[in-house]
C-alpha cells in the first residue's frame, strides 16, 4: 500500500487495502472505536441491544434526543430528527445556537456536553454530534460508552484541507470486484473536460460532480450523485432504464431513527465510514508531507495493519494527535 504526494497539480496515490485493526501505544485506536461500537449510522448509530442498554425502544415510541453542537450543521441535523423528542441542547456559542434554542424551547440547555451527558443520562436515548471536527470522536465515544445511539457528522476526526491538490486512490481487485482508481480534485482544480461531452454542456454543478470512466464509456453526474447521464447524450437514448434492485435511502436522519428503533442498519454506518475516513486522511498526510519536504512526486509506503508509514518515519507524526488528559478516547 502506498501514497504519493505532491503540491498543486502533482498526484497523490493511496490504497485503502489492509486497514489497520489496532493503533500503537495502547489505548483505544480509531479502528477499535469503530469496531467496538458495532455502529450503524449516518456516520454513527449504535443499537442499544448491542451495547446492553437498559431497554429496547419500540417503533411506536419516540426517541429522546440530545444535540451537541447545535448551530449551523447541528441545527440542520436536528431539523432532520425533529419528528422525535429533542430534550437537551448543548453549544459553547449561545449566540450561534440562539435560533436552535428558540426552535426547541422545551429542551434543556447546556454549554458543556460532558455535564449534559452526565445530567441527562437517564433522560436521553440518542445523541446528535455536530461540533467542530476535533471533538467529534470524544463526544461520540462518551455517549457510546453510556449506551446511547449516536449520530455524528463527518469526519470521525481531524481533517486538513490543502489549498489545491489532486488525490488519486487506487483500490486493488478485491472479493470479486475489479480494481478501481479514484481521482479527487479540490481547491479549484478541475479534471480535463471529457471529449465526449457536448460543447456548451456543463460538467457537474456548483458543488462539484463525478466522472465515471468505464470500459464501455463514460457517465457524469452532479454533486451527491444527482442527475447521472451517459455521454454523449445520444448514449442515453440507446440505454434502457435498469430495474431497481438496490433499496433507496430515506435520508441519513430517517435511516438513523429507524436503526435506533430496531430497524435495518443505516447505510453510512461506522463499518462504512471508518475505512472511508481513513482513506481520506492518508491522502491528507501525503499532501502535508509533500508541502513540508517540497518534494514533488513524494511516495509514502503505508503499513495498514500496523498503522505506520515505513519509508519516511517523520510522516508518522501526522498519524496521531496528542490530546490533553481527559479528552482521549
What is the topology?
Elements: E1 2-5, E2 13-14, H1 30-37, H2 48-51, E3 64-68, H3 73-80, E4 85-90, H4 98-103, E5 108-110, H5 113-119, E6 126-129, H6 136-145, E7 149-152, E8 165-171, E9 180-186, E10 209-214, E11 217-222, E12 229-231, H7 234-237, H8 252-260, H9 270-293, E13 298-303, E14 308-309
Description:
The chain is built from 9 helices and 14 strands. With 329 residues, the protein is α/β, with parallel strands linked by helices. The chain has a domain at 30-158 and 250-275: NAD(P)-binding Rossmann-like Domain (Rossmann fold, 3-Layer(aba) Sandwich). The strands form 4 sheets. Strands 5-4-3-6-7 form a 5-stranded parallel β-sheet, sandwiched between helices. A hairpin with a 4-residue loop joins strand 13 (298-303) and strand 14 (308-309). It is globular and about 60 Å long.
pLDDT < 50 runs, ≥5 residues: 1-57
- Total number of helical segments? 9
What is the terminal separation in angstroms?
27 Å
- The CATH architecture of one domain comes to 3-Layer(aba) Sandwich
Could you give the order of the helices and strands? EEHHEHEHEHEHEEEEEEHHHEE
Determine the structural class based on helices, strands and strand pairing: alpha/beta
Report the top-level CATH class of one domain.
Alpha Beta
CATH topology of one domain: Rossmann fold
Number of strands: 14
Shape: globular
Name the CATH superfamily assignment of one domain: NAD(P)-binding Rossmann-like Domain
Radius of gyration: 22 Å
> Level of helix content?
10-25%
Which strand order spans the largest sheet, edge to edge or round the barrel? 5-4-3-6-7
Task: Tell me about the largest β-sheet.
Answer: 5 strands, parallel
Mean pLDDT rating = 78
In quaternary terms, these chains amount to single chain
Strand content: 15-25%
Amino acid at each position: 500500500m502506498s501514497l504519493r504526494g505532491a503540491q498543486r497539480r502533482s498526484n497523490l496515490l493511496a490504497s485503502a487495502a489492509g486497514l489497520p485493526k489496532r493503533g500503537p501505544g495502547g489505548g483505544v485506536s480509531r479502528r477499535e472505536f469503530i469496531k467496538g461500537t458495532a455502529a450503524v449510522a449516518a456516520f454513527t448509530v449504535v443499537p442499544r441491544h448491542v451495547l446492553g442498554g437498559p431497554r429496547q425502544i419500540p417503533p411506536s415510541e419516540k426517541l429522546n434526543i440530545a444535540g451537541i453542537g447545535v448551530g449551523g450543521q447541528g441545527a440542520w441535523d436536528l431539523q432532520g430528527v425533529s419528528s422525535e423528542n429533542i430534550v437537551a441542547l448543548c453549544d459553547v456559542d449561545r449566540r450561534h445556537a440562539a435560533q436552535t434554542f428558540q426552535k426547541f424551547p422545551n429542551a434543556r440547555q447546556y454549554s458543556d456536553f460532558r455535564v449534559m451527558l452526565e445530567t441527562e443520562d437517564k433522560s436521553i436515548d440518542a445523541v446528535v454530534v455536530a461540533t467542530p471536527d476535533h471533538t467529534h470522536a470524544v463526544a461520540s465515544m462518551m455517549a457510546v460508552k453510556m449506551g446511547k445511539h449516536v449520530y455524528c457528522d463527518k469526519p470521525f476526526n481531524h481533517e486538513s484541507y490543502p489549498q489545491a491538490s489532486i488525490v488519486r486512490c487506487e483500490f486493488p481487485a478485491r472479493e470479486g470486484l475489479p480494481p478501481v482508481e479514484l481521482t479527487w480534485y479540490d481547491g479549484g482544480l478541475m479534471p480535463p473536460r471529457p471529449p465526449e461531452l457536448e460543447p456548451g454542456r456543463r460538467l457537474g454543478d456548483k458543488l462539484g460532480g463525478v466522472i465515471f470512466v468505464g470500459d464501455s464509456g463514460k457517465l457524469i453526474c452532479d454533486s451527491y450523485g444527482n442527475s447521472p447521464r451517459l455521454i454523449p447524450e445520444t448514449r442515453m437514448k440507446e440505454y434502457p432504464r435498469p430495474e431497481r434492485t438496490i433499496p433507496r435511502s430515506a435520508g441519513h436522519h430517517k435511516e438513523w431513527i429507524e436503526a435506533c428503533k430496531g430497524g435495518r442498519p443505516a447505510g453510512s454506518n461506522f463499518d462504512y465510514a471508518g475505512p472511508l475516513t481513513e482513506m481520506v486522511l492518508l491522502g491528507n498526510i501525503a499532501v502535508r508531507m509533500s508541502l513540508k519536504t517540497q518534494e514533488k512526486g513524494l511516495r509514502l509506503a503505508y503499513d495498514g495493519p500496523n498503522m505506520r508509514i515505513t519509508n519516511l518515519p517523520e510522516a508518522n507524526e501526522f498519524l496521531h494527535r496528542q490530546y490533553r488528559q481527559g479528552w482521549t478516547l
